[in-house]
Amino acid sequence: MGLKRRACLNDQTRGAAGRPARYFALGSCLTAFLLLTPFVAGQHDHDTLGVLEPRIKTSEPIFFEHVATARVTVPDGGASDGVRSAQGTGQTCPFDSTYTDADFDGPGPFSILSGFAELEIAAASYTIDPGFFPILIEKVEMVFAHHSSNNADTTTHWTLLIGPGTPANMSNVVSSNGLDIPYLEIPAGENAVNLVVDLETPFEITEQQASDHNFIFSVGFRIDVHNDPSDNPCLADPPADSNAFPTVDTSGVSDAANNWMRVLNCGPFDCPAGWRRFEDLAFCEPDGDWVLRATWSPVTCPDQGACCLPNGNGTCDDDKGKGVVDFVCEAQGGTFQGDGTACADVDCTPTGACCEIDGTCSEGTQED
Prior knowledge:
By secondary structure, this protein is mostly beta strands. It contains four helices and 25 strands. The strands form six sheets. Strands 3, 4, 5, 6, 7, 9, 13, 15 and 18 form a nine-stranded mixed beta sheet that branches. Strands 8, 10, 11, 12, 14, 16 and 17 form a seven-stranded antiparallel beta sheet that branches. Strands 21-20-23 form a three-stranded antiparallel beta sheet. A hairpin with a 2-residue loop joins β1 and β2. The protein is elongated.
């Protein structure tokens, strides 16, 4: 800053005639000083060998032999006021929405988003077939972890958010309080924990809400209080050796438009502020998808079974034994084989009329 200040002062003209120009030059220097001071002050923590690093950084992959589970059950009525919810129907036909290929229980590699600050949010939005709505979101989970350098047990306060549409429409569903809703606790050392939040009163997204938001819903987790926060995360990162952070997978970003982050406003030289898709985070974009998953059920369970695909070669799909939903099968031009059927039990070989030279016809396959 001294060089900048001297250069400005040396450009001043002398005498009364030069006074307006001098005032302008001083004003310009003061403006530059005020704008650059936060950047220069914060550069110390984000600068390596003179190269500016992003505040939020993706770690090198860390292999965890095991991912522990911290299961939190939110009792009926335990969600925040104003949450639209509905009692379960007693039916069981859960579906999972996620972009990650990581194993939530391990073993496997994960990357840690160090620098992720208090009040920042990790979220994802999912588009599902209109025929599923209304849906009941029953469970949301995300993996958090420590670096190997972590030398302290950590306690992290968190909030789960859910809503129709993109993450900007989410509302607080439940926040940890250290009592009936425990904080996230991870022991010292290189450890990972899957925070699983079960909602006894599922969060309902109605057909109308879904229609109003292009059949999209979003879920996310916010860090409310770090174990060892910095005084100002814009100037100094939360210490990597005494805090837990959310994780991403290590296979690359499969959907940069639907992984999201709510970023603090730390000025023009930091990560882009506000709600941002990964593809809009520039140099702060994580290297993988959030290790985040939502489990939901339609209010009315659809039929699920084998689907003969319309490719003409007898291909069958039953979603690895789980069954393809009837209207999903039909939407892709397939022929649904009935509720509870499996590909092992059906024959998808195309058939049609087979006519002989004498004019007689019978039903058969192309081979016939």
